[in-house]
Amino acid sequence: MDWRGFIQSFFDALHWSWMDGKYERLASFFANQGWMETAEWQRLVSRLGKRAEQEEVIFAVSGQVVPIGWLERETDIQAVFSWKGWRHSRVGEQRKLDENSRLFVIQIKKAGEAWSIEHIYELNEEDEERNTASQETIQPAANVQRKPGYDRERAVAYAHRHWNSANPAYPRFNDDCTNFISQCLHAGGIPMVYANEKTKGWWMRPGKTSVWSYSWSVAHSLYLLLKSGKAPMYAEQKSTVEELQPGDVICYDFDGNGRFQHNTIVVARDASNMPLVNARSSNSQLRPWKYEDSTAYTPNIRYAFFHIRGT
After folding, report:
1. For tag attachment on the chain, is the N or C end more exposed, with fewer CB atoms within 10 Å?
2. pTM given for the model
3. 152-307 homologous superfamily
């Protein structure tokens, strides 16, 4: 895992902790796990957002992380990240939305193949003296900054990298197609939306006891989320496959009974300007989109075409 992937995993865990208040799950990301007991860390956590009211129920959290700049030295990397978070909750029948926006400076170090956080603090006026005292300059992150909304190039690059080689950072399923498509979308900058129930949000929490939403891993559940046009993909259903672009998603109802069993991601076009797709389960790269060569294909097959907007 490169340092950007490590940081993304950290913020994914941070979003989950922001929802349930269990910040101890972040300990494994730190070189010195005792640092989380310091007043500086406690102050940072307290700034993320006020505690939920006694009768308030937090049911979803989402966030977006954008690298602003970084400084690479011999043994470590110091980077600045813009973070925006949204926490959805309700008190009785009343719904609430808490928004948070922060700039974080994170210093990470690599030992062997593993990254760890040496230090993290919030960049604000109180830290101005601390930052100007350094003679080193943080360089603009033009090469790593994500495009606003949805970065199709990153999603497609991920699809080519992992269509036949599973990412060990995620669990793998016997029917892995939707898990793979969700990973591609997330790699393209679509933020996870965390929830306390598997039937809500769009999320994956990997680890020894991995848990995930149905919409992350079940083909028909992802189809329903895309069809809704809601966060975090804000997908738009198209009437023809010609309207799709690389990074868009095709859903397959092989039997034509209204239950979608498979998903693919568009990665290119053939000589006839028809989409070619990547997929997992039956691992496929640059496959013709119709799936007429599939053993699951029937004359009753139905397709759903979704353009991913991300904003």
Report:
1. C
2. 0.64
3. endopeptidase domain like (from Nostoc punctiforme) (3.90.1720.10)
Q: Where are the alpha helices (DSSP H) in 74-230?
A: 128-132, 152-162, 177-187, 214-217, 219-228
- The whole-angstrom separation of Cα 235 and Cα 237 is 6
Tens of pLDDT, residue by residue over 272-304, are 889 999 999 999 999 999 999 999 999 999 999
Contacts of 282 by beta carbon, 8 Å cutoff, 6+ apart: 294
The tens digit of pLDDT for each residue in 72-121 reads 776 788 887 878 777 777 887 787 777 777 888 888 998 887 889 888 87
Are 63 and 77 within 8 A, CB to CB?
no
Q: Which residue ranges make up each domain of the chain?
A: 3-140, 152-307
d(CA 180, CA 152): 15
Q: Which two tokens stand for residue 308?
A: 């991913």
Give the closest residue to 3 by CA, choosing from 104, 82, 78: 78
